[in-house]
Amino acid sequence: MEETTVPELKVKEEFYRSTEKFHVITCWVGIALNLVWFISDIFVLPEYWLAFFIFRASVSLIATLILISRKITGINIYATMFVLVLGISIQNAYMWSVMDIEHFQQHAFAYMVLFIGVGMLVLWEVIFSVIVLAATIISNIIFYGVNSNLSVQEFVINGGLLILTVAIFCVFLIRTRYRLTYREIKSRLELAKSKEIIEEKHEEVVNQKKEITDSINYARSIQQSLIPLEGHFNSHFKDSFVLFKPKDIVSGDFYWIYEKNNVVFYATGDCTGHGVPGGFMTMLGLSFLDEIVEVKGIKTPSEILNMMRDKIVSTLKQHGNFGESKDGMDITICCFDKNKKELQYASANNALYIVKAQQEGHGQELQIYKADKQPCGFYHVYKPFTNNVIKLEEGDCIYTFSDGFPDQFGGPNFKKYMHRQFKEVLLQNCHLNFTEQKNLLNSSFETWRGKQDQVDDVLVIGVKV
Description:
It is a single chain. The chain is built from 13 helices and 13 strands. By secondary structure, the protein is an alpha+beta fold. The strands form three sheets. Strands 2, 3, 4, 5, 8 and 9 form a six-stranded antiparallel sheet that branches. Strands 1-13-10-6-7 form a five-stranded antiparallel sheet. Strands 11-12 form a two-stranded antiparallel ribbon. A hairpin with a 2-residue loop joins strand 2 and strand 3.
């Protein structure tokens, strides 16, 4: 994860930018009020009104000149505010020094207003507050020594100690407000930086996902070019359908068909996993079938499966050691002789269903032909696959499938579809043409699934003799 800490210099720049406008307004208000309070001086101490006016005007003029020339001189707003507050504090120290006790007590409130106002409105570093406090104490001592007729005790108990207490309190108030505001700005900047990093990472992930998706889509196009079209089955059988529903872009289920001398070979495969890993296995399966059946001319389903298993174990270097690939496939190989109306099959884990053609006086029944309980791939005990021979009649329907359909979760109680219900749907609709059968199977699957995710690739192949 990238560092989200913001440099202190950047925090100070943002702090200055965020508080500058407020401090400029505060300066102008302070300058104006300092002059307006001259009206009170005329009525309170008329004999000092001119001296007070000169002091007030000088402080306000200096602050005004600094304020309006900041862009030229480069003086920041904190220095401007500091000059104004320092000037008013020294001005108040002088005014205090020439007052009697009654006016001294009254003016103590004005002094407190200055410090409380600064404490509530000003945000600057603590060094400015310390300098103002020190200058206030020093100027009061100097002006007291030069002008005041009050004793030290009178000076202290009639406002001096109170003002000092308020001033010290305001130093800590400004320091606390400054730190809180500084931390808030720093947190805001770090949050913005974190958001920026997250957005960059999100964009990077989106781009990577697009690249991966594009690659997978390209892999799908390759897979689709190798898997035969559904129409190929119709050209080899009286009637047929292929219900093929990949869970992901690339499927781990596959099918294959080949005909020679009026003998049709076809396979229904379910590779380990789904998506890209399963897709790689389908490439191996299709390639091995082409090599074994078309090139080498192996015609017996059990021999085809035995040879496929050997090639998978050899290609994936499976020796049964810990951590090795255990990939393989459940697959049914069918070999149908059109002339003899004879079906040979061998199957790894997946059963085969046959619905016999309806005969007069007899209802239709679904016959289950079991598979060898071992995968086509590495297995702890190798057994030769069994070759089964079935005599068929015209109108018989053969169904081969992967486990994706019966294993789908859904329905009112979120359960598996199960083989029992799958067989019932096949048997109830076997009298329909295969296009209708396919549509009804798909509708039954989607109704059962509802809003649930598809759990696996789905492949069902039906052919009619």
